[in-house]
Amino acid sequence: MKSAVLARYAFPSSALTLLVVLSFFLNWELLLSLDFSVVWEYREVLWRGLLLTLLLTAAAGFLGLFFGTVLAIVSQSPIAVLRWLVAAYVEIWRNTPLLVQLIWIHFALPIVTGISTTALQSGIIGITLQASAYFTEIVRAGIEAVPKGQWEAAHALGLPARTRWLRVVLPPAIRIMIPPLVNLVISFFKATAILSVLQVSELMTVTNRISNVTFKPIELFTAVAVIYFILGYVMSRATLKIEHVLQRSER
Amino acid sequence: MQFDTHQLMRHFPELIQALGVTVWISTLSLAFGIVLGAFACLGKLSGAGVGYRFATGFIDFFRTIPEVVLIFWVYSCLPLLLSVRISSEGCGVIALSLFGGAYLAEIFRAGVLAVPHGQVEAARALAVPTFHIWRRVIVPPAIRRMMPAFITFLTELLKASSLLSAIGVGEMAYRASVLGAKTLSYFEFLSAIAVLYFLLIFPLSMLARQTEKRLLRRTGH
């Protein structure tokens, strides 16, 4: 029962001690002079930034899901070279940082192709390419979870490939995939903030700009962190709900 | 265009040094993250009370906000609030430790919860002291069970460390951008660090997959 005592008293008291110690170091004068009205003042700019963040999330979600599904279908192909290419694509995009991919696409790729892209274009290309790699893995796992018997039945009935994929394999696969797909969309919601390194004008870029003009970083970054937290938290709670509903419908 | 190997070779030692910075910052953040994560995990496992609420709030908040926001918050707010000077490396380590602590807490918790309950009850029935239950009954299998998730987290941490280039920490992504701008050979340097990151992260991903397979074979489901 010692552990119960430890949990009940030791942790709260150590947390409190930490807070008290921290409060001695806090710059109270600054803390009391904080003026959050700057957030309200720039609400329209912030709102437009947030809108772009949500649009980018949607783009990563839809485009990523589309290309990911295509690649996952290719990964089931009988031609080994195609399977290898998909595997290589997925591993490369999953095992390098998004930031490096973005600056590579924005600064290095135009030197090779001769076509320079705007920050927004580079951002969308980068996040879509990475999203499709992550989506491929999830869709592939979903496809492979469909019982072999269903494939064989479709083959035995002589269904054409199109019908086999659209009517037999993908519908149950999608049901399995929904929770990880939604989680992925949330992680790309977070990842859009990385696009601020290219100055894409989404919420984080906008916040940085306002903070540079108004010299109120504490108010702005705190408010924006709270905005990101609320949206992300609502989304992850909704995912839990979806998972519960799906589990219940399976029984 | 031509691939300028000359510039790349000349500055390659600098890139390797920056790779060292990436690894060193990730290691430091990992160490602090493990300590924070262990505390938050114990707090959340306590199930109720102030410690539980504190831990849950910490975990939820730092898992939900984007890492870039956290990094900029620590960099531009924390020194003002505490009226101290913190180097950008210090800010980076603080931000990544908070991020790591929140993720590791959930990984540790999943590991502890995966330990069969009967074993803990058996130890309790035998009147084994609590400390020894943790040390001998809970922790060893919990570590084995959380290994795949832990290694996957390492890959996430290494990737997140590249974000510190935004606040001017001299790690790989930052150094490559600077060298690329100086020598006008962006393509060479950015491609080089992409390869270096891949060589650093890919083996870890493979290791995570392998430990997961071994774990599945061992626990048999």
Brief overview, please?
The complex is a heterodimer of chains A (251) and B (221). With 251 residues, chain A is an all-alpha fold. Chain A has helices spanning 2-25, 28-32, 37-41, 43-74, 80-94, 98-113, 119-145, 148-156, 161-191, 203-214, 217-250.
Q: Poorly predicted ranges of chain A (pLDDT <50, ≥5 residues)?
A: none
Multimeric organization: heterodimer
Which architecture of chain A does the CATH hierarchy give at level 2?
Answer: Orthogonal Bundle
CATH architecture descriptor text of chain B: Orthogonal Bundle
Structure summary, number of beta strands of chain A: 0
Describe it.
The complex is a heterodimer of chains A (251) and B (221). By secondary structure, chain A is an all-alpha fold. Helix content of chain A is 84%, strand content 0%. Chain A has one domain: MetI-like (MetI-like fold), CATH 1.10.3720.10. Chain A starts with a helix and ends with a helix. The mean pLDDT of chain A is 88. Chain B is an all-alpha fold and 221 residues long. Chain B is 84% helix and 0% strand. Chain B has helices at 5-45, 49-64, 67-76, 78-82, 88-113, 117-125, 130-161, 172-183, 186-219. Chain B starts with a helix and ends with a helix. The model of chain B has no long low-confidence stretch (mean pLDDT 91). Classes of the chains: A mainly alpha (251), B mainly alpha (221). At the A-B interface, helix 1, helix 5, helix 6, helix 10 and helix 11 of A face helix 1, helix 2, helix 3, helix 4 and helix 7 of B.
Q: Key features?
A:
heterodimer; A: 251 residues; mainly alpha; MetI-like fold; B: 221 residues; 9 helices; 84% helix; 0% strand; flat
Write the topology of this structure.
The complex is a heterodimer of chains A (251) and B (221).
Chain A: H1 2-25, H2 28-32, H3 37-41, H4 43-74, H5 80-94, H6 98-113, H7 119-145, H8 148-156, H9 161-191, H10 203-214, H11 217-250
Chain B: H1 5-45, H2 49-64, H3 67-76, H4 78-82, H5 88-113, H6 117-125, H7 130-161, H8 172-183, H9 186-219
Helix pairs in contact in B: 1-2, 1-5, 1-7, 1-8, 1-9, 2-5, 3-5, 5-7, 6-7, 7-9, 8-9
